[in-house]
Design brief:
The structure is a single chain. This protein has seven helices and no strands. The protein is mainly alpha-helical and 187 residues long. It folds into two domains: 57 residues; 122 residues, no CATH class. Helix 2 packs antiparallel against helix 3 and helix 5 packs antiparallel against helix 7.
């Protein structure tokens, strides 16, 4: 046999249910263990948050209707929330908004830039995701203006890359971008 047999949807659903139950049992075990061993340190919450993040990734990987740009958007949002939560749990050090989120924004924009260059004839499929990512990329600008960030240069680089990404997309795919904006926002 050249191709592997595909699992039936019933078997796939059963496997997912088993993993969900296992995840819940492990999470409850970790929370209980944390209460017993070191209740003043909330390390189990970080583990549970990591498991929730893993399920977000699994859900959007299994879902066939989400395109690559949608995955990039979901990843940037999910990882940002996860790192902010971890940062809060370990004592609000600020590394999530100073370093991790700008790097995530940078990676998302570089990924979208590569997608634009490689598949510019399919740009219409993910143009709205790129616009959302560009809007998210301007978030550090607010943090810089409000003097919340201690490390500003990573955020500035991320914002510049985002603007360059948008300009290249407009130059290469302006007709598609206009079509998407007219269709989505009835302009």
């Amino acid at each position: 046999m050249i191709y592997p047999q595909k699992l039936s949807s019933k078997k796939g659903d059963k496997i997912i249910r088993i993993f969900v139950i296992a995840t819940i049992v492990i999470a409850l075990f970790l929370l209980g263990l944390n209460r017993i061993i070191a209740p003043e340190i909330h390390w189990s919450a970080v583990c549970v948050a990591g498991m929730l993040y893993a399920w977000v990734v699994v859900y959007y990987s299994i879902k066939k209707s989400t395109n690559l740009a949608g995955h990039v958007l979901i990843q940037i949002i999910a990882i940002s929330i996860l790192t902010i939560f971890i940062d809060y749990e370990i004592g609000e050090i600020g590394w999530s908004i100073n370093i991790i989120i700008p790097i995530l924004i940078l990676i998302a924009n570089i990924t979208m830039f590569v997608l634009t260059i490689v598949t510019h004839n399919k740009y219409i499929n993910y143009a709205i995701y790129q616009l959302i990512i560009v809007c998210i990329s301007m978030f550090p600008l607010i943090l810089i203006y409000e003097h919340i960030l201690q490390v500003k240069w990573i955020s500035i680089v991320a914002i510049i890359v985002s603007i360059i990404n948008l300009l290249v997309s407009v130059m290469l795919c302006s007709k598609d971008l206009k079509e998407v904006l007219v269709r989505k926002f009835h302009m």
